[in-house]
Design goal:
single chain, three-stranded antiparallel sheet, 11 helices, alpha/beta, disordered N terminus, eight-stranded parallel sheet, 13 strands, 319 residues
Amino acid sequence: MSATSNNSGTRRALGSLSVSPLCLGGNVFGWTADEAESFAVLDAYVAGGGNFIDTADVYSAWAPGNKGGESETVLGNWLASRGNREDIVIATKVGAHPDYKGLSAATIKSAVEASLTRLRTDYLDLYYTHYDDESVEVGEFLTALDDLVRAGKVREIGASNISARRLEESLAFSDREGVARYVALQPHYNLVSRDTYEGELADVAARNGVAAVPYYALASGFLTGKYRPGGAVDSARSQKAAQYLSTDRGPRVLAALDAIAAAHGAEPATVALAWLAAQPTVAAPIASARTTAQLVPLLAVTDLTLTAPELTLLTEASA
């Protein structure tokens, strides 16, 4: 994974794509952030040097009254209103939308057209298989994705929520058959969830030159430091985040984050993202912001480089 410097900070390579070191998560768009709030966050992210936005066709089908596609629709409206499509790297995913479940070739072919329509664009920069579908041979969905690349509808492909075995099988098929190859992997990975990536899956990525773009980079907000023993937070994700307080690791990680954040005059969230960004194979952690205020410490990761002892302290605290 190469890195080049330009006036938007350090860019990372994902295949032919050049992305900023913080990927903005689009899961909140059309869910906890309405269109106006989403536009404000997107504008601030781009003003802060960001160019890499992650969404999925299923966002946010889980919310009452939503059916999936809300995030892509908001993002498409923003791209159209700002006229900046060529400056933005858009990643979306296939396989989990209620109307387009699984990874059959027919499903992928239909789902991509729906995503392109909602995003108001004629191409996707990065198209992930959202969840592996083991009922489908890797050759079927990789050939379908390759067709999209050859048609100019997709620039690069990636995998999310896939086992080390299936990732290796997929990469081997692509190399053998000369079809589109995964350049990115989106694993669940953060300071309080390391075994979801480290080990066999990370080894496959490293061995094959696949860049990781971790989701849940802030553990549903836990690593921002706003969840403390005895405290209550009004958030759609508070129950998930607060569960980390009941472990030995959670409070230990918070203490290490607090100490390093104080030394740098930084926020715990910035430190947590900086640790993740420094890990082998990681190109850009994904983090979402419902408001522009929440975005500030996320963008600050671009300017924070942790020392070797600081990285070790966090690694040991999170073990």
